[in-house]
Amino acid sequence: IPLSQQFMTSKERTIVFIPGYQSVVPSTKSIYLEQFCQQHNLTYVTFNHDFSPESSVETWYKNFLCILKNQTEGQLILVGSSLGVWLALLLFHRDEEDAVQIRSRICGIVGVGTSVNSTERWLNEIESEEKRIDRAYVYRRPSLYSSTGYYDILVAKLLDSKEYILPMESGKVYVNCSVIMLHGICDTDVPYHHAIDVLKLLDVPLGKICELRLIHDGDHRLSRQEDLIRIHGALLDLISFC
Fold first, then answer.
1. Quick one: 132 and 222 in the same domain?
2. Is 60 helix (H, G, I), strand (E, B) or coil?
3. Residues 231/222, Cβ–Cβ less than 8 Å
4. Domain count within the chain
5. What is the CA radius of gyration of the chain?
6. Domain harbouring 195, CATH code
7. Which among 4, 8, 85, 81 is positioned nearest to 45, based on CA atoms?
């Protein structure tokens, strides 16, 4: 898995950027975060997901877990974009030994355009029940961000991700760190009320930040300069709590 790292002189704290679905680094946000880390003497780690047709949330999560275990040390602040927020929260929901050890080091999460359980939503978009259980069926999902206007998604990918669905309807996820989510009101990919539902899912201790910051003209990506400034502010707020 390609890694992009920038190690600074201080290794006490690391910012990890988790890209979204079909997003690759370097990107606008990843470059901005690298510059932020250089300015604040922080370690920076980011990476690309494996988006091969057979990959699933299991693939992305396990690769992410491996990177945190082998490529980071000290306190962690996770910055997740879209799908990346889901992967960050899975660290607090699952019971693998590595996840338990790593989450004790996490002192903050910034969510940008939060998208949790997206594979389940995509599966439900397929009208034919027969096709929803056909592992070989390819769902051609429209996307503004693809040069072709769509992403081809193998149903097997969606079915294999079911084990990693967070309990949005019944249950809580205990997150022992501060969480700040940024979401655009003009996000047509993942409406902002989804981020509200995710925050309701979280059980965050008293004294920690647990906030949703809405951007009135923001889209899903939140990559404009004014959006990056808001991410900058959220990071400074989390650092002050770490």
1. no
2. helix
3. yes
4. 2
5. 17
6. 3.40.50.1820
7. 4
Residues 96 and 170 in one domain: yes
Nearest C-alpha neighbor of 179 from the set 157, 204, 200: 204
Indicate yes or no: pTM above 0.85.
yes
- Cis previous bond, 167, omega within 30: no
Pairing of strands 178-184, 210-215: parallel
d(CA 45, CA 202): 25
Task: Please report, as a single letter, which amino acid is at residue 131.
Answer: K
Distance of alpha carbon 137 from the chain centroid:
26
Residues 6+ apart with CB under 8 A from 232: 32, 36
pLDDT digits (tens, 9 = 90+) for 169-205: 888 999 999 999 999 999 999 999 999 999 999 999 9
Same-domain pairing of 90 and 143: no
Q: Are residues 104 and 187 in the same domain?
A: yes
d(CA 170, CA 216): 30
CA–CA separation, 184 and 191 (whole Å): 8
Same domain (yes/no): 77, 99: yes
Whether residue 190 contacts residue 203, with contact meaning beta carbons closer than 8 Å, is answered with no
Q: What residues form DSSP beta bridges with 63?
A: none
3-state secondary structure 85-151: HHHHHHHHHCCCHHHHHHHCCEEEEEEECCCCCHHHHHHHHCCCHHHHCCCCCEEEEECCCCCCCEE
Statement: residue 1 has pLDDT above 90:
no
CA-wise closest residue to 79 among 54, 52, 108, 53: 108
Residue ranges making up the domain that contains 128 = 118-164
